[in-house]
Amino acid sequence: MGLFGSNKNELKCKKCGTVLPDSERLKKHQEKAHNKKKEKCRVCGTEFDYSEDLRKHKKNCK
């Protein structure tokens, strides 16, 4: 069995069929591959591919 094997926890992207090992990776894949809208910081204007990255950035942006 390879990296992903036949793990029962594997999830398949409904849009492209990509198989990912867990829901967190599936979520990040879908944001990056299928949601072309970037998240933008309202304070400094920096753009992020992932909402999680923007959330982390906001903690330190002044």
Automatic annotation (TrEMBL):
Q: Which domain of life is it from?
A: Archaea
Q: Where would I find the C2H2-type domain in this sequence? A: 11-39
Please name the InterPro entries in this protein's record: Znf_C2H2_sf, Znf_C2H2_type
- Which SUPFAM superfamilies does the UniProt entry name for this protein? beta-beta-alpha zinc fingers (SSF57667)
Coiled-coil residue windows: none
Record protein name field: C2H2-type domain-containing protein
* Gene source species: Candidatus Nitrosopumilus sediminis
